[in-house]
Design brief:
Blueprint: H1 2-15, H2 21-31, E1 37-42, E2 45-55, E3 58-66, H3 75-85, E4 93-98, H4 103-109, E5 113-117, E6 121-126
Parallel strand pairs: 3-4
Antiparallel strand pairs: 1-2, 2-3, 4-6, 5-6
Helix pairs in contact: 1-2
InterPro entries: Acyl_CoA_acyltransferase, GNAT_dom
Organism: Microbacterium foliorum
Pfam families: Acetyltransf_7
């Protein structure tokens, strides 16, 4: 799982001048909570993972990675739609994505809007009524 994160995030992290092969894996391992994580399986193959952390004030999509060969096939959209449908209707979804990441367009198509940003991260939110 940490390796998938490193592979998926490498192009964006390199573009931002922030790629470190050890740190990118360690950051995942330090925050990994198995109970929050689901493996994405398509036709019997593991193609990605998604982790959602439930907090009192929000549902945080912490990790959402698809193997490069599985991107652009509608898998991410289907998984995200499924996640957004699994809500109690009271808490917004939140996530962060790297600046200029192609994934931002996916999130925007599913109702996420800019909450704040810095030089590296874009923090986004989808209200329960939009999710």
């Amino acid at each position: 799982m940490a390796e998938l994160r490193a592979v998926v995030m490498r192009p964006d992290l390199e573009r931002l001048g922030r790629y470190d092969p050890v740190h990118v894996r360690q950051r995942f391992l330090d925050a990994f909570v198995p109970e929050n994580t689901r493996v994405i399986v398509v036709d019997g193959d593991d193609v990605g993972l998604v982790a959602v952390r439930r907090e009192p004030d929000a549902l945080w999509i912490e990790h959402f990675y698809l193997a490069p060969e599985s991107q652009g096939r509608g898998i991410g959209a289907a998984v995200l739609a499924h996640l957004l449908a699994d809500t109690d209707g009271t808490r917004p979804f939140r996530l962060n994505v790297l600046q200029a990441s192609a994934a931002r367009r996916l999130y925007e198509r599913h109702g996420f809007v800019l909450e704040s940003e810095d030089a590296v991260d874009v923090f986004m939110k989808a209200d329960p009524s939009r999710a």
